[in-house]
Amino acid sequence: MTKNSIIVKITILFAVALLSLSAFSFYFIKMQIDKESSESQRKYGQFIATINQIMRYGGNVELIEKYLAELEFHIVNDDQIKENLSKQIDPHFKGVIAKIVRDNESIYLLLQTPERVTLYRDSFKTVFKNYYLLTFIAFFIVVFLYVLVIKSLLPLKSLRKEIRKFAEGRTDIHCALEQNDEIGELANEFDNAVKKIAALNESRHLFLRTIMHELKTPLTKGRIVAEMIDSPKQKERLCSVFHRLNGLIDEFAKIEEMSSKNYQVSKNEYRLHAILHHVLKKLMIESEQAPTLLDLPAQEVIVKADFELLSLAIKNLLDNALKYSHGGKVFLEARGDSLNVKNFGAPLPYPIEEYFKPFFKDAKNPHSQGLGLGLYIAKSTLEAQGLPLLYQYEEGVHQFTLKGVVVEK
């Protein structure tokens, strides 16, 4: 559980509330005890003054005892208390005296005569126990509220796990709750949204599979017909076109699979030359034609990536560079842990972030070609592998950098 967790914050809040309640209760009860002790001291002082006045005007012990009985004083017969207070009794005093004595927090009235020593206490009940009871009830309410709040927040943990699964592309999740609070409503709404998205994804997959099947069927027939052409040159040209179209359909299928989080990325080490050979076939560039268009690394380079995704990214970057290069070759170089794709050209009229968006069309460029998907596909396939795509323009040269892909030269 992280320190920024809502449950941690609520726990700290309730802990502070309990500490504050404890401090308040302690000082309040102590203040009430001191207040009642002072009141008792003052009241007992008045009683002592009255008793002494009775004695001064010739009253006897029976009259004093009657006076104390009227004030609802009762005799204390607790031997332990008497023993504790025995030190405050003067054994050599032979007259009648009334005085206040204390034992811990309790106050007593001591009546000493030549015959006996009697300890009195009034029948007034202190409310200290009520204060302690109220404090206990307050503590119980705070703890009960804490448990209630934490219990209502606990489903957030399971909801977070389900949302994380959904973010990973899984739609086989269930997060509906029977709670009637805001968290329950949120979980139920999210569960409904997941079910709708799952249904839409299923419909989309079915639609795309149908479209691809319908596209591949005439392509297959076209290739069969092309094989029957007598002219080898025309036959090769048509077959390469059909092969190119078939490859594009496969690319779109892979992109759709990747965007729907159903593609399992498998990063391994490969020779860059093997990947470039695969890319040139996709670009329909013959090996003898490649040196006139591309400047590729001569040394052996080892890259670590998903073979199909990296091939798709490099293919789209090279294709984009070949389309918009202002003369000269397109350069692919390995530098450090990066691959750089360079071409000469005019500066971009829009920020590069705009070109990374799907179906972006450069309205200011009359020579703009394609659907505006090349850079979007390149960036998406690299991000799926955790590889950044960087861009810079300097001295008339566009440079796209695939960082962290090269592991050995």
UniProtKB/TrEMBL annotation:
EC number: 2.7.13.3
HAMP domain span: 155-202
GO CC term (a single one): membrane
SUPFAM superfamilies listed in its UniProt record: ATPase domain of HSP90 chaperone/DNA topoisomerase II/histidine kinase (SSF55874), HAMP domain-like (SSF158472), Homodimeric domain of signal transducing histidine kinase (SSF47384)
Topology within the bilayer: Multi-pass membrane protein
CDD domains, A to Z: HAMP, HisKA
Compartments it resides in: Membrane
Transmembrane annotation, as ranges: 6-29, 131-154
Catalytic reaction annotation: ATP + protein L-histidine = ADP + protein N-phospho-L-histidine
Any single Pfam family the record assigns to this protein: HATPase_c
GO molecular function: phosphorelay sensor kinase activity
Enzyme class of the recorded protein, top EC level: transferase
Record domain Histidine kinase: where: 210-409
Protein name listed in UniProt: histidine kinase
UniProt organism field: Wolinella succinogenes (strain ATCC 29543 / DSM 1740 / CCUG 13145 / JCM 31913 / LMG 7466 / NCTC 11488 / FDC 602W) (Vibrio succinogenes)
